[in-house]
Amino acid sequence: MITSDATPPKDHARPHRAPAKTSRAIVAEADPVTRKQCAEVLSQLGFAVELRDSGIGTVVAAREAPPDLIVLGQLRDVRAPEAIGWLEANAALQATPLLVIDGAPADETVRGRTRRISRIRRPISPMKLRRLIVELFPGR
Question: How many domains, the chain?
């Protein structure tokens, strides 16, 4: 097709649709290997991923722009239960699923909590992580 400045090209493509909202996830994990595994799985499922190794940084980032999912593991500055308490205190995050990576069957991180918290045990299996995220977000 030849076009000139005088005649705009005709658009023969399908009608434009508004782009689908990209879901956003924060992965908070001090271990770089686990952090990378989580990021890869989430990216493959269409999430925009923000990586953190700090619980305080995660709480601040979630407060400034509430994500659709928070993955929380070992943190370099605070214990996970403390970070979970801060996240629970934020009313804007009440509907945000929290996926906790833990290492012990009786990890205190998830005991006695009322919000929507899912668990995955270490070591992380990408297949199990993918299955859990698909359960949390059907249609992915």
Answer: 1
Q: Express each pLDDT in 64-98 by its tens digit.
A: 999 999 999 999 999 989 999 999 999 999 889 99
Question: Does the bond joining 19 to the residue before it have cis omega, within 30 degrees of 0?
Answer: no
> By residue range, what is the domain housing residue 104?
24-136
CATH code, domain with 66: 3.40.50.2300
What is the pTM assigned to this prediction? Answer: 0.79
Can you read off the two tokens belonging to residue 9? Answer: 């090209």
Do residues 7 and 29 touch, judged by C-beta distance below 8 A? no
Q: Distances in Å between the alpha carbon of 28 and those of 18, 76, 80, 138?
A: 31, 10, 10, 23
d(CA 90, CA 3): 55
pLDDT at 20: 55
Residue 17 belongs to a domain? no
